[in-house]
Amino acid sequence: MEEFKGPFRRFAIHGDTRATGKDMNGKNWSKLCKDCGIIDGKGITLTDVDIVFSKVKNKSARTITYSQFKEALEELARKRFRDKSSEDAAQEVYRMIEGKSPVIAGVTVKPTRTVASPTVSRLTDTTKFTGSHKERFDETGRGKGKAGRVEVVDTSGYVSGYKHAGSYEKKIQKPPQKPM
Question: According to a count of CB atoms within 10 Å of the terminal CB, is the N or C end of the chain lower?
Answer without folding.
Answer: C
